[in-house]
Amino acid sequence: MFADQISVFLENKAGRLAEVTKTLAGASINIRALSLADTSDFGILRLIVDNNEKAETALKDAGFTVRTTRVVAVEVSDKPGGLLSILEFLDSRKINVEYMYAFVRQKEDNAVMIFRFDNTDSAVEALTEKGFSVIKGEELYTM
Amino acid sequence: MIFNMEFETLPREAIEAIQLRRLKAVVERAYEAVPFYRKKYKEAGIKPADIQTLEDIQKLPFTTKQDLRDNYPFGMFAVPMDNVVRIHASSGTTGQPTVVGYTARDISTWAELMARSLSAGGATRDDIIHNAYGYGLFTGGLGVHYGAERLGASVIPISGGMTERQVLIMRDFRPSILTCTPSYALHLAEAAEENGMDFADFNFRAGIFGAEPWSESMRQEIEKKLHLSAVDIYGLSEVMGPGVAMECQEAKKGLHVYEDHFIPEIIQPETGQALSAGESGELVFTSLTKEAFPVIRYRTRDISSLNYAPCICGRTHVRMTRVSGRTDDMLIIRGVNVFPSQIESVLMQVSQVEPHYQLVVDREGNLDTLTVMVEVGEGAFSDEVKQLQSLQAEIALHIKELLGVSVKVKLVEPKTIARSQGKAVRVIDNRKI
């Protein structure tokens, strides 16, 4: 019930983000979702793509530091308070969110949020038990 | 194995007797043949006849790199050019290059000392030596080359550069001894990995690394990545080239200075005062046998100390501790002396950091700032910002603890710090003073 996310280390300087997207475009990889965490001198780009293996190889070959991170994709109803219900639940179970970001989806009633938990297994277990829809990686990459 | 059993194991009194005889001769020769020495000694009121004991060497003025530059190109040569068979020069990265010359006998002496060095490093006539020191004006390549031939080993004169091709040759020719700079050794390991190869599958047994200061932790890193036993070689073109001193495989604790050909001294860099054995200071060399380019009390700017204790290998020549830095590599950051090798040893202790780094010094207002650029490889990379920030903080804290100086640690992408084929550029000083 996990999804794999590609994380890339980026120095905070002009053109690095473009270089990543260029590398992915060159390998015909489609970016499904992304988030960028940054500090004054470096950033971490997190990506959900349609082909993890290909993306990882292409980025490594281009000289980037890359690692695959296990994340959880959860369906959230696309209306006010949709995200709140999940966060309140996680809070009640003392499940810590390291970071999260939204996944772009067209013409659907539900939005998808990508979560990184400090304890992925117990988070997934709690979420599914409560009836939240956790999306499998394979499904997510081609959604 | 000891290459020259007779001379490398002489008792101390015999070494000193040879040294005194040769010192008198070289001072006499320099005085007669090199106007620079004659002028300097006259000014100091010294005559060659004043040298009666080894201690008398302290009466002689020092020779500096600036003196060699002032006599560019051939002013320090002690023989006519028709007796000179080889010319080498320093890279001149810190100013005008210094030019050195060799007679046929000098080349032969150098080959002998390099054969001793390779032998102390573990090489025998059965070995194939992969010599990745640069061939050319730099003394590294040809120095090792002639020594390897004198020893009777098979030498691959690969020189520096074309790193991928080097790796293929290492795989196919199966050399057993590697000679290059320590930073290039790590670069070769990286290149092997990139090409899907591993030094564990190669045939190397020993590596003889030098021409730049390196730390004990870097030795461990190299030994782990290259699967060989790494030893340190020392030399500088002004004194001869590589093979002035060499660490033995038996002890791996300090480098034996070939005392039948050189007199080493340690001085206090600011005052020029001679320091006693064990004390750390600037290394000074006098060449005893060189004909074309004798140097007398040449200040190397390298920091070391001398250890006269007997060595388990049986060699009786004094050992110098590995060079911990150069007086001209030394950075003074807000009044604190910092050697790049000290920063290096901290980085090597922090797990998973790549052995490639660069120090950038700036002056902001009236304050010096030191930025340590560290490459983030896969081992150190975390998906979480706070993890990477704690890595930065950990490195900065360790440096602060060891050196008492606050630094900024900047994480950079792999391979963005320029790799060198020869000596690594560790410091970029942007201060305009």
Can you give keywords for this protein?
heterodimer; A: 143 residues; alpha+beta; VC0802-like; 2 domains; 7-stranded antiparallel sheet; 34% helix; B: 433 residues; alpha/beta; Rossmann fold; GMP Synthetase, Chain A, domain 3; 9-stranded mixed sheet; 4-stranded antiparallel sheet
* The CATH homology group name of the largest domain in chain A: VC0802-like
**Integer average pLDDT of chain A:** 91
The CATH superfamily of the largest domain in chain B appears as ANL, N-terminal domain
Classify the beta-strand content of chain A into a percent band.
35-45%
Cα radius of gyration of chain B in angstroms: 22 Å
Taking all Cα atoms into account, the compactness measure Rg of chain A is 16 Å
- Any idea of the CATH topology of the largest domain in chain B? Rossmann fold
Question: What string, H for helix and E for strand, traces the elements of chain A in order?
Answer: EHEEHEHEEHEH
Q: What does the largest sheet of chain A look like?
A: 7 strands, antiparallel
- Number of helix segments of chain A? 5
